[in-house]
């Protein structure tokens, strides 16, 4: 409290209590793999903002193309604007030796990265390493590649076991070709065929994760993280290693395998938007999981000022007001259900959520409920014959009907 001695006018600036919560970024990717110059920045995450920067830092003259290089180029070609590259050197599974585990651990220091991929690494150990990293960090999502060649696509529906794996399991012979169930990853099949960025005249098989990560970034920028990154053209893809049929995708989609399909009138598109959480999970859609990741981290960062503040009604009301304002903005962006904020979310922080025993334990509890929008995965048109001029009820009662499905 200032001391006033001389009569006069005094102006004081006071805090209004409004501390805006800003949405965190969601489109920065991190790619792990073997760089064309295998010794460049080994196990060191390097920020890359354009293809030329990647070439300067991770290639030498006459460097051969690698899955990592093709993925990074595919990321930028499909709308990505910033990524981190972690060169793990040459070798087998990412988790196969201690140096590679050190490389993955180094990503923990890169708070900006929200999309994680290891282009071309399609073995249970690598899957497990990437998934475990994303689950540990809590704000990241993994894009996993299927193997380059799949003789029996039924194996894609089998879930790999985690933990200790035998030699046969590591190769996928016993445990299938898919990663374990998780809410923190999506799985894509098949690989694409695209020009080699280091020799455009050469068409090579390319893991789709880099291109898909670019599509995530492109969708985030154009529509928002709440929009499913699907029904999007894969830029740079000339063909597919395997042509998935409509019937095959029906089974794969239920198993959480996102297919990349070719349509004669629409080109090569990502045609799936599911996580590996399982068909019955409330987290089965990629955009729902990533939306919650964004909201949770944004609230975390935007309310850090509350730590060690008095645990009283004034703090409760300030938190409630700030979170409500943030979620109202998210609702206005189209990410939440309902025609009003009251139908889209609720925020509760009062004496009911913070009774004396909770306060004595040093805790301040806020309850938040969110109703996310979910993608229209199956589009159904019911069509029947109609007797011209008849009422709606008569028309609905007459004729057969057909259904058309899309996703």
Automatic annotation (TrEMBL):
Residues 280-383 form the Tail sheath protein C-terminal domain. Pfam families: Phage_sheath_1, Phage_sheath_1C. Transmembrane segments: none annotated. Residues 105-276 form the Tail sheath protein subtilisin-like domain. InterPro entries: Phage_sheath_subtilisin, Tail_sheath_C, Tail_sheath_structural. Belongs to the myoviridae tail sheath protein family. This is Phage tail sheath protein FI. It comes from Desulfococcus multivorans DSM 2059.
């Amino acid at each position: 409290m200032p001391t006033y001695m001389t009569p006069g006018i005094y102006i004081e600036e006071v805090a209004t209590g409004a501390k805006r919560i800003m949405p965190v970024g969601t489109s920065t990717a991190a790619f792990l793999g073997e760089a064309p110059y295998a010794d460049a920045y080994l196990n060191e995450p390097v920020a890359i903002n354009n293809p030329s920067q990647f070439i300067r830092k991770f290639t030498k003259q006459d460097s051969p193309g690698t899955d990592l290089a093709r993925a990074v180029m595919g990321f930028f070609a499909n709308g990505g604007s910033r990524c981190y590259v972690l060169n793990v050197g040459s070798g087998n599974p990412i988790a196969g030796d201690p140096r590679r585990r050190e490389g993955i651990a180094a990503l923990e220091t890169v708070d900006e990265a929200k999309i994680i991929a290891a282009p071309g690494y399609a073995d249970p150990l690598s899957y497990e390493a990437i998934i475990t990293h994303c689950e540990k960090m809590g704000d990241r999502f993994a894009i996993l590649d299927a193997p380059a060649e799949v003789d029996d696509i039924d194996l894609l529906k089998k879930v790999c076991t985690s933990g200790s794996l035998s030699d046969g399991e590591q190769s996928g012979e016993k445990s299938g070709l898919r990663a374990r169930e998780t809410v923190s990853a999506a799985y894509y099949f098949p690989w694409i065929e695209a020009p080699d960025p280091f020799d455009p005249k050469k068409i090579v098989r390319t893991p789709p994760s880099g291109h898909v990560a670019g599509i995530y970034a492109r969708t985030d920028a154009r529509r928002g993280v709440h929009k499913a990154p699907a029904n999007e053209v894969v830029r740079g893809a000339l063909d597919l290693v395997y042509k998935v049929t409509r019937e095959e995708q029906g089974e794969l989609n239920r198993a959480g395998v996102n297919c990349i399909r070719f349509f004669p009138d629409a080109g090569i598109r990502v045609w799936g938007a599911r996580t590996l959480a399982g068909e019955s999970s409330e987290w089965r859609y990629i955009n729902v999981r990533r939306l919650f990741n964004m909201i949770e981290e944004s609230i975390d960062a935007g309310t850090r000022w509350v730590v060690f503040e008095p645990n009283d009604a004034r703090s409760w009301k300030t938190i409630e007001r700030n979170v409500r304002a943030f979620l109202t903005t998210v609702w206005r962006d189209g990410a939440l259900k309902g025609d009003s904020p009251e139908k889209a979310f609720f925020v509760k922080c009062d004496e009911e959520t913070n009774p004396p025993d909770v306060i004595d334990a040093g805790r301040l509890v806020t309850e938040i409920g969110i109703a996310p929008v979910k993608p229209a995965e199956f589009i159904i048109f019911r069509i029947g014959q109609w007797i011209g001029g008849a009422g709606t009820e008569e028309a609905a009662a007459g004729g057969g009907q057909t259904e058309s499905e899309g996703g």
